[in-house]
Amino acid sequence: MPGTSPAAPRVAALVGPYLSGKTTLMESLLYSCGAIDRRGNQKDKNTVGDASPEAKSHGMSVEISAATGTFLGETWHFLDCPGSVEFWNDTQSALMVADVAVIVCDPEIDRALTMAPLFHFLDEHEIPHMIFINKLDHTDVRVRDLMEALQGISSRKLVLREVPIRDGESISGYVDLISERAYKFKEGEQSDLISIPGDLEDREVEARQSLLESLADFDDGLLEQLLEDTVPEKQDIYSHMTKDLADDLIVPVFLGAAEHMNGVQRLMKALRHETPDPRKTRERLGGLSGDPLVQVFKTYHMPHTGKTSLARIWDGSVKDGMSLGPHKISGLFHMIGHTQNKIASAGIGDIVAMGRMDEVSTGDLLGAAGTVKGPDWPAPAQPIYSFAITPKKREDEVKLSAAIAKLADEDSSVTVEHNPDTNEMVLWGQGDIHLQVATERLANRYNVAVDTRQPLTPYKETIRRGTKQHARHKKQSGGHGQFGDVHIEIKPLPRGSGFQFTESITGGAVPRQYIPAVEAGIRDYMNKGPLGFPLVDFSVNLYDGQYHAVDSSDMAFKLAAIVGMKEAMPNCDPVLLEPICEVHIYVPNAFTAKVQGLISKRRGQILGFDAKEGWAGWDSVSAHMPQAELYDIIIELRSLTFGVGTYEWKFDHLAELTGRIADDVVASRQKAA
Ligand SMILES: Nc1nc2c(ncn2[C@@H]2O[C@H](COP(=O)(O)OP(=O)(O)OP(=O)(O)O)[C@@H](O)[C@H]2O)c(=O)[nH]1
Ligand SMILES: [Mg+2]
Question: Which of 16, 170, 556, 654 is within CB 3.0–4.6 Å of 577 for a Cys-Cys bond?
Fold first, then answer.
């Protein structure tokens, strides 16, 4: 543990809602650690955390940024995580390797709810976490009210560590509730020690008592002391804090304004004293050991240096040039944002960037002999938003596949699919900005610019009536002629049957060897029925025909079948089929009624709703919804639910679509064709 042996490098993941000030806080923490000599800011786009062109152009973090610093002789690694839910995949990876999470939040009561999924993840994985309430330089929110809102979404006890000193409308400093010292904030510097303002004394005593009572919930000795009105030693209080944080029983809450360095030194000191040692984290993850043992948690493909695997060392040590089974480390670095500082070796607790381990992926746990079984790595969320993409330059098509493989290697919540029905390449992800960033990376990092558009819905069509058809393909043009003649009977089939081909030829009216060609002709035609969509749920029986001893051929029979289908199908009462998905929408139950409205508005049919298992206060609403209506539903769902609503979906069935919507679909597809 820290103090008894030289502290191993520790890792704090900076997480929290979108734009709450995580990147700004990392800047200030790195400044405290002497890792940078001036603090960048978002306005000047010169922060360590948001160094990528995509982060700069969107004014937000879009992936993990790692940075290393030293505080009072101890090594610290900070992982600045994106706040946007669309980039959650990276955030959850960072949390998997962190000793502690610092939740940076805004002093806005309404936004507390947006953190519910984050708290849920932390609780589920028992990750020690503290809260830094940021932006207290201008707020009229009372810390007490905010604490209440935050406690509402946390299953762990929140413990306020400081009470604010108010100066009119603004907060000018704080009283530390353990040391009982007061500090006055100073712009861009460490705070000044002052005496506790007289009007705050009562509030301080009350808040300190509440802090002690929270700790006493987990320690009988302390409880007894409190009952006897004995004041515990400061050192004991710190020890309880440290232990209870490590055991994920309490959530200490700090105050400040990252942009002005306010409260940052205090936070850094608390991190130093209270963050668990990596050996404790390793225990939490299931008692990992090996020599060495390295957890890869992020992959970058850098324009100049190639593939870089960011990893935490759980055991042993690694050296540049060594091999972990078949994987050779070619370059070992500490990162400060996009800057790589070469190191020769690193030991337990450290975060390192390893060069050119081409076959290694995010989530891999590596030992001396290669990949070993590690803790379950959280799966990426199901894709819920998509773009159809085409390279701007035709010759880039091959390059595009390779580039997308790299994108997915960097962020497994980006996937690509070739849709055989619509013949589109579809890029899938978590939302509009997520996919914009993905396509910008294709252009910026991999030099493949793409055009994007809304993907086509994979409609199909079927028939509601059967018919019989005679068709002949005949050509006489010098030499060999062509002759094929078929009689077919077409019938509709129930939904989900697909296509069935049968024959009932007697007396060799169509010789055996030509029958497969008839079927092939029909299958060719099926790709595009009379309405312009793939045909399903019908059968064709070949029951008669004629042939010519010299002029008949596979090709002639195939063409005869196609002619027959073309003539027959428009008479079979064709109808459009649209894909319907089974959808489960997850929201805090305050939004359940809104979600039901959203489903109805988008032609959905509600199947029911229930409490979401394991999520207190959340509902799961189930529905059947047309896939066409799901295209951008996540955007509306998020805007209805402070960004926390989400859903899962899977194809369920095809349903007939008629009327004006169907006419529009057919007309627009015909126009596009
Ligand atoms: N007033 C005030 N503004 C702050 C403070 N800290 C950060 N900000 C502002 O908040 C905005 C967002 O800051 P970032 O540090 O980029 O926030 P973030 O949490 O990293 O954002 P994402 O990574 O995109 O989620 C910027 O405009 C900052 O200038 C603060 O202490 N006080
Ligand atoms: Mg950020």
Answer: 654
Q: Is residue 3 part of a domain?
A: no
Residue ending a domain, choose from 453, 481, 503: 453
Residue 668 confidence (pLDDT): 93
Closest atom of ligand 1 relative to the 27 alpha carbon: 15
Give the domain-ending residue among 537, 552, 572. 572
Phi, psi (degrees; rounded to nearest 5) at 88: -60, -30
**Ligand 1 site, residue 262, Cβ cutoff 6 A:** no
- Are 93 and 13 contacting, i.e. CB atoms less than 8 angstroms apart? no
**Whether the Cβ atoms of residue 358 and residue 307 lie closer than 8 Å to each other:** yes
Summarised one tens digit per residue, pLDDT across range 96-143 is 999 999 999 999 998 999 999 999 999 999 999 999 999 998 888 899
Distance 43 CA to ligand 1 centre (A): 10
Residue (of 266, 268, 278, 267) closest to 311 by Cα position: 278
pLDDT at 5: 57
Q: What is the CATH number of the domain that holds 364?
A: 2.40.30.10
Over residues 335-388, the pLDDT tens digits come to: 999 999 999 999 999 999 999 999 999 999 999 999 999 889 999 999 999 999
Average pLDDT rounded to a whole number, residues 27-49 = 96
Q: Is the CB–ligand 1 distance for residue 82 below 6 Å?
A: yes
User: 165 and 259 share a domain?
Assistant: yes
Is the whole model's pTM more than 0.85, yes or no?
A: yes
In this prediction, residue 421 carries a pLDDT of 87
What's the pLDDT score for residue 6?
60
**How many Å lie between the centroid of ligand 1 and the Cα of residue 414?**
26
Instruction: Specify whether 567 is located in the same domain as 581.
Output: no
The residue range of the domain holding 482 is: 461-572
Q: Which of 19, 56, 118 to mutate to test the pocket of ligand 1 (most atoms within 8 A of CB)?
A: 19
Q: Which ligand is nearest to the CA of 51?
A: 2
Interacting residues of 148 by C-beta distance below 8 A, sequence separation 6+? none
C-beta 258 within 6 A of ligand 1: yes
Contact 630, 580 (CB under 8 A): no
Nearest protein Cα to ligand 1, atom 14: 21
Whether residues 218 and 249 share a domain: the answer is yes
The vertex-222 CA angle with 217 and 225, nearest 5°, equals 130
pLDDT of 416 higher than 90:
yes
Whether residue 377 lies inside any domain: the answer is no
User: Does residue 188's CB lie within 6 angstroms of at least one atom of ligand 1?
Assistant: no
Q: 380 in a domain, yes or no?
A: no
In total, how many domains does the chain have?
A: 5
